[in-house]
Amino acid sequence: MSELIAGVKAPAISLKNQDGKTVKLKDYAGKKVALFFYPEDMTPTCTVEACNLRDNYALLQKKGIEVIGVSPDDEKKHGKFIEKHELPFTLLCDTDLKVMNAYGVWGEKNMYGRKYMGVIRTTVLINEDGTIHHIIKKVKSAEHAQQILDKWGL
To answer: Is 46 one of the annotated active-site residues of the chain?
Structure first.
């Protein structure tokens, strides 16, 4: 698969959310979408990122941006994460990694010299017409909402 770039159509998504409901990217046609891929619910950095988006959710919504999180976690774990941290946005379950592979965010990571496969923290900004506006590859978890706004020039 070739790497995704700005201007191309975002790969289709059809995944279950925390409530077991199927969510499709095309359901968000006509809206800006910040699709954030993260490794795991309840981990320190992922919690900082999700809470930053939660704390700035009203502003993101005011600017017309829908926030959707994607991780390999299942519905039950997503539900607990949402409840514990009062997250106002949808979290999608990509347990078989199909969407993560389509977006190129599942790959080799290196921590303390140990190589392993995992989610490469990435946010894909998708325009109202379903094309990719920008890909944030260097996510700053504690400042993520501002990164999203800056990349959209809002």
So the answer is: yes
